[in-house]
Amino acid sequence: MTDSFFASPGSKAEIEEGERLSPKFDADGLVTAVTVDADDGTVLMVAHMDARALALTIETGIAHYYSRSRGKLWKKGEESGHFQTLVELRVDCDQDAVVLRVRMPALGPGVPGAACHTGHRSCFFRSVPLGTAPSPELKLAVNDEGRLFDPAKVYGAPKKTDTPRF
Amino acid sequence: MTDSFFASPGSKAEIEEGERLSPKFDADGLVTAVTVDADDGTVLMVAHMDARALALTIETGIAHYYSRSRGKLWKKGEESGHFQTLVELRVDCDQDAVVLRVRMPALGPGVPGAACHTGHRSCFFRSVPLGTAPSPELKLAVNDEGRLFDPAKVYGAPKKTDTPRF
C-alpha cells in the first residue's frame, strides 16, 4: 500500500539530486527525522518515520512519527497537546533522513513550546565538554533554562508519555 | 577498549536527566549524529558515530563519524579539506543521538563552507511540498542557491568521495 506514496528509486544521481521523493527506508522500514524550531533553528528532537508516518506528515502538515518502543504510529502531541505544525519538510541527498521545520504551541505568555517528554524545550538540553578524552567521570552540562512543563501533570503516570525513547 | 570512554548506563532517570555520558549505541554500535551550522543553525547533514568516532570528536573537537558504507572511521574533510570544528556537542535525553554545532572553512570570500558531497552547503537542499497525499509524481523543490563547489574537482573520481551515503 505504502509503495504507492513514493517514486521508485532511480539512479544514484536521481536519488541524490533529482526531483522525485524515493525515501531510503532502513531494514526496519524507517528514515531518521530531525525536528527543528522553524524560527530559531534549535534542534528539538530526533525520531523516526515509517512510510505511513512520512505520508501523513506530508499530507496533513502535522508531524507524525513511528514509535520504535511502542511499535506504532505516533502523532506527536496526541496525549500532551504539544503538536508540531510543519513550516517546511526537507530531505537529504541519499533520502534516508528528513528535517522537519516546525512550530509548536506556546506553553504560556513568553514560554515557548516544548518537544521533550522530560519537560525541556529540546531533547538536546545537555552538552558534552570538549578537549579531553572522554572518561566515565565526564560531566555533562545543562545548556537550557530548565523544564518548561511538569511531565507528571502533562502525561500523568510515566507509562502514559507520548514520547517514548523512541 | 571503548567501554572505558563512557559511564555505564544508570537508571532511566539518570540516563535521561543525569550528568553522565552513557551513549546508547544501537545494534550496529552507532548513535545518530546531526550536524548543524553553529552560527545560523542550518542542518548540514545527518550521519552516525561509533564509540571511537564519538570519543575522537570529544577529544579533538573535530568531527569524526563512522562511515557505514566503508565500514570505518571517517574524519570529515580528510580528503576534501572540509573539516568541521565543534563549537558545542549536545546529547539527547535517551543518549542515542548527538548534535554537533560546527564551523566549516569558508570556500571563498562570501562563500560559506559546504558539508554535502554533492557540492551543496547542506545535504538537505530539497524540500517536499506539503498539503496533499504524496504520490510518485510529487516534485521536490531545491531550497538553496546551488552548488558551492564542484565535486569532481574536490574529490576526483566518484569513488574517492569522503562522504559516502553514509
From TrEMBL, chains A, B:
<dbReference type="InterPro" id="IPR026660">
    <property type="entry name" value="PRA-CH"/>
</dbReference>
<feature type="binding site">
    <location>
        <position position="92"/>
    </location>
    <ligand>
        <name>Mg(2+)</name>
    </ligand>
</feature>
<dbReference type="GO" id="GO:0000105">
    <property type="term" value="P:L-histidine biosynthetic process"/>
</dbReference>
<feature type="binding site">
    <location>
        <position position="123"/>
    </location>
    <ligand>
        <name>Zn(2+)</name>
    </ligand>
</feature>
<keyword id="KW-0862">Zinc</keyword>
<keyword id="KW-0460">Magnesium</keyword>
<dbReference type="GO" id="GO:0004636">
    <property type="term" value="F:phosphoribosyl-ATP diphosphatase activity"/>
</dbReference>
<dbReference type="GO" id="GO:0008270">
    <property type="term" value="F:zinc ion binding"/>
</dbReference>
<protein>
    <recommendedName>
        <fullName>Phosphoribosyl-AMP cyclohydrolase</fullName>
        <ecNumber>3.5.4.19</ecNumber>
    </recommendedName>
</protein>
<comment type="similarity">
    <text>In the N-terminal section; belongs to the PRA-CH family.</text>
</comment>
<dbReference type="GO" id="GO:0004635">
    <property type="term" value="F:phosphoribosyl-AMP cyclohydrolase activity"/>
</dbReference>
<keyword id="KW-0479">Metal-binding</keyword>
<comment type="pathway">
    <text>Amino-acid biosynthesis; L-histidine biosynthesis; L-histidine from 5-phospho-alpha-D-ribose 1-diphosphate: step 3/9.</text>
</comment>
<comment type="subunit">
    <text>Homodimer.</text>
</comment>
<feature type="binding site">
    <location>
        <position position="96"/>
    </location>
    <ligand>
        <name>Mg(2+)</name>
    </ligand>
</feature>
<keyword id="KW-0028">Amino-acid biosynthesis</keyword>
<comment type="pathway">
    <text>Amino-acid biosynthesis; L-histidine biosynthesis; L-histidine from 5-phospho-alpha-D-ribose 1-diphosphate: step 2/9.</text>
</comment>
<dbReference type="GO" id="GO:0000287">
    <property type="term" value="F:magnesium ion binding"/>
</dbReference>
<comment type="similarity">
    <text>Belongs to the PRA-CH family.</text>
</comment>
<feature type="binding site">
    <location>
        <position position="93"/>
    </location>
    <ligand>
        <name>Zn(2+)</name>
    </ligand>
</feature>
<keyword id="KW-0963">Cytoplasm</keyword>
<dbReference type="Pfam" id="PF01502">
    <property type="entry name" value="PRA-CH"/>
</dbReference>
<dbReference type="InterPro" id="IPR002496">
    <property type="entry name" value="PRib_AMP_CycHydrolase_dom"/>
</dbReference>
<feature type="domain" description="Phosphoribosyl-AMP cyclohydrolase">
    <location>
        <begin position="45"/>
        <end position="125"/>
    </location>
</feature>
<comment type="function">
    <text>Catalyzes the hydrolysis of the adenine ring of phosphoribosyl-AMP.</text>
</comment>
<dbReference type="GO" id="GO:0005737">
    <property type="term" value="C:cytoplasm"/>
</dbReference>
<keyword id="KW-0378">Hydrolase</keyword>
<feature type="binding site">
    <location>
        <position position="116"/>
    </location>
    <ligand>
        <name>Zn(2+)</name>
    </ligand>
</feature>
<feature type="binding site">
    <location>
        <position position="94"/>
    </location>
    <ligand>
        <name>Mg(2+)</name>
    </ligand>
</feature>
<dbReference type="InterPro" id="IPR038019">
    <property type="entry name" value="PRib_AMP_CycHydrolase_sf"/>
</dbReference>
<keyword id="KW-0368">Histidine biosynthesis</keyword>
